[in-house]
Write a structure and sequence with these properties.
386 residues; Aldolase_TIM; FMN; 45% helix; TIM Barrel; alpha/beta; eight-stranded parallel β-sheet
């Protein structure tokens, strides 16, 4: 097919990010691209991945590369899935369904966000067995139970409870862009819409994106504070998690763990795994990059449950770095989102292709033909004192 968008010239996820930035109005691009406050964590997440060095071994037969990985008893064709992202259709129309279908096709997990712009039922259908459901615990227990019951009815086998939003992150770019509920058309917004006619037209055709699972509840919302109260609660505690553990019969993951003792407590409570995550640097600017938090957590968990990591995955080799430092699996958020932003379905395909090609190449270069065999022995040994 003719590549009118120039996607074939995108060599990396960073290239796709730049293409997406050109196609999307600033307020919508920043909504996905931005991080908390100074954005230190956002920057450090991917820098810290880059700092992990692996030492290649040569003269190993790498003519056949196997990227398959198993997590939570499910077999996948690659060791990563799509992280839950709320309101992604504001980034590019139909982004949710595009990515859910892509994950099904590639046999990797797709995590449907509570705050997605598409209902969890539609996403379960599109991901067709590859869907996991991410839960935000609401201040209203009826809202939480409603979502859990719907996820159960939609036959999700894995529920991922997000723990790292006791308060919404302060994202300075969104404040500068005057993002508000209800959405306001300011002169700056009008200018951005005019400068990005393709986005404006497609968004017009698909309808204004909303938070679909709560659409009825949010109709009455007049402020961002109203939206937050429906979605999240500062009162979410370990007792609530225990109730969810008892309530949910499928696999249960806790997302947003950064402290080894929290990880151990999740294992003690019978959780099936954790996602070591700082929410892609969107919650706080002062915390550790996840790849730096991972080794102590892996050490404390001692293989008692699955460890998944996210925040900062931008290259295929990052999946090997995560595995070498103790993770079983990873999630990519913005990496695949930038693909959709750069070119819709074709862009999502390109992002997936880039990550997969980089992964296969890195396994070959490292001298480990089988992803599951990557471990601490691939980490570069440091001389004492370094
Ligand atoms: C725009 C945006 C929206 C997000 N929405 C959610 C969400 O609804 N639920 C959740 O648990 N995490 C959410 N996250 C965090 C992601 O699941 C994931 O932890 C993060 O994107 C990983 O970092 P990365 O983007 O560097 O890969 C969101 C992230 C972004 C960028």
């Amino acid at each position: 097919m003719v590549d009118l968008m120039g996607l074939d010239r995108a060599a990396s996820i960073d290239d796709l990010r730049r293409m997406a930035r050109r196609r999307i109005p600033r307020f919508a691009f920043d909504l996905v691209d931005g991080g908390a406050e100074s954005e230190r964590n956002l920057r450090r997440n991917s820098e810290a991945f880059e700092e992990v060095t692996l030492t290649p071994r040569y003269m190993v037969d790498v003519s056949k590369i196997d990227t398959r990985a198993t997590v939570l008893g499910q077999n996948f064709d690659a060791p990563f899935g799509m992280a839950p992202i709320g309101m992604l259709n504001a980034f590019w129309p139909d982004a949710d369904l595009t990515l859910a279908r892509l994950c099904k096709r590639e046999n990797i997990p797709y995590v449907a966000s509570s705050a997605a712009s598409t209902t969890l039922e539609e996403l379960a259908e599109a991901a067709d067995g590859n869907g996991w459901f991410q839960l935000y615990v609401s201040g209203d227990p009826k809202v939480t139970e409603g979502l859990v019951a719907r996820a159960e009815a939609a036959d999700y086998k894995v529920m991922m409870v997000t723990a790292d939003v006791p308060a919404a992150g302060k994202r300075d770019r969104d404040i500068r862009n005057q993002l508000a509920v209800p959405f306001r058309i300011t002169p700056e917004v009008l200018l951005q819409l005019a400068l990005h006619p393709r986005w404006s037209l497609e968004t017009l055709c698909h309808g204004k994106p909303n938070i679909a699972n709560y659409a009825d509840l949010l109709k009455a919302a007049t402020s961002y504070a109203d939206v937050q109260k429906t979605l999240i609660t500062p009162g979410f505690t370990w007792e609530d998690l225990q109730r969810l553990r008892d309530r949910w019969k499928g696999r249960l993951l806790v997302k947003g763990i950064l402290h080894p003792q929290d990880a151990v407590q999740c294992a003690d409570m019978g959780c099936d795994g954790i996602v070591v995550s700082n929410h892609g640097g969107r919650q706080v600017a002062f915390g550790p990059p996840t790849i730096e938090a991972l080794p102590a957590i892996a050490e404390a968990v001692q293989g008692r449950m699955a460890i998944i990591v996210d925040s900062g995955v931008r290259r295929g080799v990052d999946l090997l770095r995560a595995k070498a430092l103790g993770a079983d699996f990873a999630l990519a958020g913005r990496a695949l989102a930038y693909g959709v932003g750069a070119g819709g379905r074709a862009g999502a395909n390109r992002a997936m292709e880039i990550l997969k090609l980089e992964l296969v190449r890195a396994l070959g270069q490292l001298g480990v033909p089988d992803f599951e065999a990557v471990g601490p022995s691939q980490l570069t040994a440091r001389a004492p004192g370094f």
